[in-house]
Every structure is written in C-alpha cells, then in structure tokens.
Design a protein that fits this description.
Number of helices: 10
Order of helices and strands: HHHHHHHHEEEHEEEEEHEEE
Structural class: alpha+beta
Shape: globular
Number of strands: 11
Radius of gyration: 27 Å
C-alpha cells in the first residue's frame, strides 16, 4: 500500500496566528458569509477529489483482475495499490497529485473543515484510508487466486467486480450529494450527517441478480473470495462504501488505549495500559490460548516447491485444547509468535491471522525469494504434554492410548477404557470405546497439519508447492 504524505506550506504560521488571536476568534458570534462559502467550497472539493481517487482505485483493481484472469495469473498483485499490475501505466500517482493540489487550493489554512483531519491534512488522511479500505475490500470480494483460465469462473469474477464497484461508487456519490445539500445552509462543518450515509440500495438491487446470473452453482471458494457467497460480497462492499463516505468528511485521531472506549483497531480497552490482565498495554486481547501453560511448543513449517516463488498462503491447523497462541486475529501478539526463516525482512510482507482453530498466514514478495526448505517457525503455548494422544472426534479428550507402548493402530482397533471421556456423550460404539463413533486416536503432531494455496512466482505464474510440519516441545 502506498502511503501518501503531504505538508502544506504556510499552514503552521497561519494556525499560530489564530492561536495568538484566540480571544478575538472566540468572541465572534458567527463566521462571516465569505468564510462559510470558503468552507463549503473546501468541503465540496475534498468530496470531489476523494471520489476521484476512490473511482480510480476501483477501476484499476477491476481492470487488473480482468487482465490477470485472461492470462491465468494470480490476482493478488491487483489488490496492492500502487503495484505494477495495479498501475501498469504509472498514472495513479498523477491522480493523487492532481486532487491533492485541488484540495490545497480550495482549502485555505485555518479553514475549520481541515480541523476534521489529523494535522489539518485532508488528502493526507483520506487518500491512504481509501487505499487501505479498497485494497482490503478487494482481497475479500475479488480474492487473490488464479482462476486457471476457466471461462465460467472468470465471468463470475467479472460480475462480482462490477457489482462491488457499483455499490461503493453509488454510496459515495449519494452520500456526498446529500451532505452537500446540508452544507448549503450550515454554519458547522463536522462529520457527515448520519442520515446521509447511503446504503447503495439501487446498486445492491442490481448486484444480487447480476451475480446470481453470472455465477450459477459457483461458490465463493471456487473464485477465491469470501463466504457466504454472494451476500458477503454485497455486505463488505456496503460497509466499505459507507466507511469511505464517513472518511471523506472526518478522520478521527488515533485511538487512545486506556480511555475505556474500544475504538478500531483496538480489540479491547479496560481503562488501563497494564499487560497481563486480559487486555494488553496496546489494547489487544491477551487470552484465547490454552491453559494451564506447560513447555512452549514449536511448529516448523517446511515447503517443497518445484521452483522458487514469491508468494503463498499457508494454513496450520492445531489442537486448540492442547496448544494455543495468545491474542486473536491479526494482533501484534499473534505476529510475535511467528518467524519467517527465508529472505530478509525487507524482502517480503508477512501477515498471520489466528482464527483460534487454525493459523492462516500470507507471504508476498516482489521477487522469488522463497524456495524448498524450512520456511516458518510458530511458537505455541503447550498445555498438554506432546506425548499425549487425542481423540480425533473431540480434541478435549486426551490419553486415548494407555501409555504402555501401544501404537496408534492399537488405539484405533482395540482402545483401552478412556476414563476421561464423558460416557453420556459417547457416540456409536460400546461405552468402553476411547473415542466416539470411529474410535480413532491421533498424535498431537498429526492433529497439526498444514495446507498451502495460491503459490506464485514474481510475475504471477503458479508454482507447485506442498508443506509439512515438525512439532517439538
């Protein structure tokens, strides 16, 4: 994602002058008519410029996915705003510069409209937020996958792209039009009026049958997007459009951890900044692991590839009652438990997402820096000795083997009595069966498998890979 920074000349000195004249400013009964018109013009220019940037992002992403699908290439680079695939003619920076200059010209230093943005910098706050919101939405609704040249899947993906962009563009257009009407008679220029945050009803009404027609019997999984499909595409698009509509009028300052209010991206806020009480000093959930804690458990993920590659998605399942990771989702606590063993940190982007039953990770680089060999190490909390076998039907049941040297096959076909399993919940089979239904016992290592998908080289060509894990404690 590109980060857009801008410093507007002269703004600091003008603000200093306003501070020095504080008593005069406070004494004014109402802003002069000329000042109101200036603020109205500033607001409309910000809305116009922000809408232009959003439209450009959506257009480029959609074109990129269409082009990648035609050549049976991975769509991941399309979701990275500013990538070569996203902007093959390098025109996007010019769009940012043009709209940034328009906002600078229309919004003079000291205009109260600018006070709605950190550092009084409207475009410097809105444009990066638009890139992040629309890039994230693209991952969810358009996916990263290679559709393999399948015409039916490509047609479906095209309908999804057109529908989601239509929804977001309609929401921004309708919301800004509504707010412009309010601004004509207002003396205050704060956040968007809640009644103006549109829901994109017309575009949503078109999207539902359009996607259904283009995607008969096609699941979201088949085209690498969210589930339940297609409703999740529509919901995500509405949420993204409404978020951008609000962002155009105000971008709040960073949340304050410890103030008792949970503000995104905070996961919790317990009125203090003390770690170890369930909510960390950075307002991230600390729990969601197993207990009581024993020795740490290390999972090493190794890859076998037919050639070097630049990106891959990896999922490691784990027995959540026997091992766990503190934190949840994409928090820094989760990231701190992972390490990439190949390449240098500046060579790639890495993100881990703990979904509590498995750990999903994504690696992306601009060059083919990954290859066959150990790729990742994951540090889990261990809460049951690794030697304990578990029931494949219920991971809360351990000790399926009696510890006298019986191998797993022995557990499957002649299991000893399993006193730790509640008799009342045993499935098919006699009460002395260790595990319900099929009596299968597995090692915790076998209950920690990995899967890989979306492996591509630096130019988006698919790479054949497989993975294996080694669990140690």
């Amino acid at each position: 994602m590109n980060i857009h920074w801008r410093v507007q000349p002269g703004r600091g000195s003008r603000m200093a002058a306003l501070v020095a004249m504080g008593s005069v400013v406070v004494g004014l009964a109402a802003p002069a008519a000329a000042d109101v018109k200036a603020s109205q013009k500033c607001r409309s220019t910000i809305a116009k410029g922000s809408s232009s940037v959003a439209k450009t992002i959506l257009l480029n992403v959609d074109k990129c996915h269409g082009a990648q699908n035609k050549i049976a290439a991975d769509g991941g680079p399309c979701n990275v705003i500013g990538s070569t695939q996203f902007d093959p003619k390098a025109k996007y920076p010019g769009v940012l510069t043009k709209n940034d200059a328009s906002i600078d010209k229309a919004c003079l230093a000291g205009d109260p409209v600018l006070g709605n943005f950190p550092g009084d910098d409207a475009s410097g706050a809105i444009f990066p937020a638009a890139e992040q919101t629309l890039g994230g939405n693209s991952v969810v609704t358009l996916g990263n996958g290679n559709l393999g040249g399948d015409k039916n899947l490509i047609k479906c993906a095209g309908a999804v792209a057109k529908s989601r962009s239509g929804i977001i563009n309609e929401i921004i257009k309708s919301s800004t039009k509504c707010q412009a009407g309010i601004d004509k008679t207002s003396l205050v220029f704060g956040a968007i009026d809640n009644g103006c945050v549109d829901a994109g009803a017309k575009a949503v009404a078109k999207a539902t049958p359009a996607i259904a027609k283009a995607c008969p019997s096609i699941s979201g999984t088949a085209i690498g997007v969210c589930e339940p499909f297609p409703q999740c595409v529509i919901d995500s698009s509405v949420q993204s459009g409404q978020s951008l509509a609000r962002t155009i009028y105000s971008v709040p300052a960073a949340p304050v951890c410890g103030d008792g209010t949970i503000t995104y991206p905070e996961q919790c806020d317990d009125t203090n900044t003390t770690s170890g009480d369930g909510c960390s000093a950075s307002c991230e959930i600390e729990g969601n692991t197993c207990s009581p804690l024993l020795a740490p458990r290390t999972v090493t993920v190794s890859i076998t590839a037919d050639r070097p590659f630049a990106g891959v998605d990896i999922v490691v399942d784990y027995p959540q009652f026997q091992s766990g990771i503190p934190g949840t989702g994409q928090s820094s606590l989760v990231q701190s438990r992972t390490a990439v063993l190949q390449g240098l940190p500046g060579d790639y982007l890495f993100l881990a997402n703990d979904r509590e039953t498995d750990l999903k990770m994504g690696l992306a680089a601009g060059a083919d820096v990954f290859d066959t060999g150990a790729l990742l190490t994951l540090s889990f909390d261990g809460c049951v000795a690794l030697s304990e076998n578990i029931c494949n039907r219920n991971q809360n049941v351990i000790g399926c083997c009696n510890g006298d040297g019986d191998d797993i096959a022995g557990c499957e076909f002649a299991p000893p009595a399993c006193t730790t399993f509640p008799l009342g919940t045993i499935g098919a089979g006699s009460p002395e069966d260790c595990c319900p239904s099929d009596n299968a016992c597995v090692t915790q290592a076998n209950a920690t498998p990995c899967t890989v998908s979306g492996a591509v080289d630096a130019v988006g060509n698919p790479v054949t890979v497989s993975c294996s894990v080694l669990v140690t404690q």
